[in-house]
Amino acid sequence: MNSSGIKKELLESLQNDCGRYHIAVLGDVMLDHYIYGRAERISPEAPVPVIGYIKEQYMPGGAANVAANLKALGCEVSLFSVVGQDHEAELLKSLLEQQGITHKNILHDKQRLSTCKTRIVSSNQQMLRLDKEQTNPLSIEKTEELVHELMTQHQKKAIHAIILQDYNKGVLHPLLIERLIKFCNEQSIRVHVDPKKDHFFDYQNVQLFKPNLKEAAQACGMEESADPEQLLRLSEHLHRRLGMKQLMITCGAQGIWIYDHQVAELVPTQVLSVRDVSGAGDTVISLATVLACLDFDFKQIAQLCNLAGGQVCQKSGVVTVDKVELLQEISAI
């Protein structure tokens, strides 16, 4: 198929076929809180800037942002997580409702705090971040309840793929990870993982493993370098340890490295004016999962993830991919 045929097929599939797929997201949900102001003077009380308040904004973050990206792409989404019984949990559920995402599979635990990241921003520059969180692993009881929720949902309507979105906030832990991967492999559900350091090597034999370069290099005790030879060594090491079918390493401005039994290549991205990288990884794993369900070539997936990740990096705050804008960008290539 020539390039114009690929583009036409891609555009039609992205535009029309995403709704055929039911994708689950399981992991750490959080509330992203932005306070915008203007730094005009230094405090007389301490050598810190005084921020004059302008406005504030709340957005779904973490695994909730992945679900929001999938919804923006047109997929059917089921979101699984655990939150506290607090104001932040209620606010997050309200935001999800506004985006058409059900929170029926989000469990409450009165022993936990809901994660909230408060960022104070002045002139598009993050001045301070305050994290309210609790990172101890879920109880056995809540773990069993979460697995039951997923199995029940799959019985009601088959799940085609699941994204395990790990932010080391306690929802994903070795016992839960093992149970989920075993169940998904038995049910032929694709498992895609966005890992963090604490459980990096617990995600065995998944379809797609997507760390960023810093995470991957630190986990393997190797140099953080986007040199293709170094990336190849890193990939071979990860494959020996994890046995994933496909590996995607996001390398920031250098692009996305892809590795499987057919390809080992750094797919470059365009030079962009970056305003905020928050949430870009969520967009990449979301789109990669959708395109894998649509059965697109791995290199095409990386190329489009570069476009989508670049799109959200040019906007302030944690935002979702704009499907119309993405389709327009593909058409313009």
Descriptive overview:
It is built from ten helices and 13 strands. It is of the alpha/beta class and 333 residues long. The chain has one domain (3-31, 61-117, 136-332): UDP-N-acetylmuramoyl-L-alanine:D-glutamate ligase. A nine-stranded mixed beta sheet has the order 5-4-1-8-9-10-11-12-13, with helices on both faces. A four-stranded mixed beta sheet has the order 3-2-6-7. α3 (87-98) links the parallel β4 (76-83) and β5. α1 packs antiparallel against α10 (323-332), α2 (63-73) packs across α8 and α8 runs antiparallel to α9 (298-313). 42% of the residues are buried.
The gist of it:
The chain has 333 residues and is α/β, with parallel strands linked by helices.
Keywords:
333 residues; UDP-N-acetylmuramoyl-L-alanine:D-glutamate ligase; nine-stranded mixed β-sheet; four-stranded mixed β-sheet; 10 helices; 13 strands; 39% helix
Radius of gyration: 20 Å
CATH topology: UDP-N-acetylmuramoyl-L-alanine:D-glutamate ligase
Structural class computed from helices and strand pairing? alpha/beta
- Taking strands numbered 1, 2, ... along the chain, how are they ordered across the largest sheet? 5-4-1-8-9-10-11-12-13
Shape: globular
Percent range for β-strand residues: 25-35%
**What is the percent of helical residues?**
25-40%
CATH class: Alpha Beta
CATH superfamily annotation: Ribokinase
Could you list the spans in which at least 5 consecutive residues all have pLDDT below 50? none
The count of helical stretches stands at: 10
Rounded to the nearest angstrom, the distance between the terminal CA atoms is 17 Å
Overall pLDDT metric: 90
Largest sheet properties: 9 strands, mixed
Q: Based on DSSP secondary structure assignment, what is the total number of beta strands?
A: 13
CATH architecture: 3-Layer(aba) Sandwich
Q: What is the H-and-E element order?
A: HEEEHEHEEEHEHEEHHEEEHHH
Q: How many domains make up the 3D coordinates?
A: 1
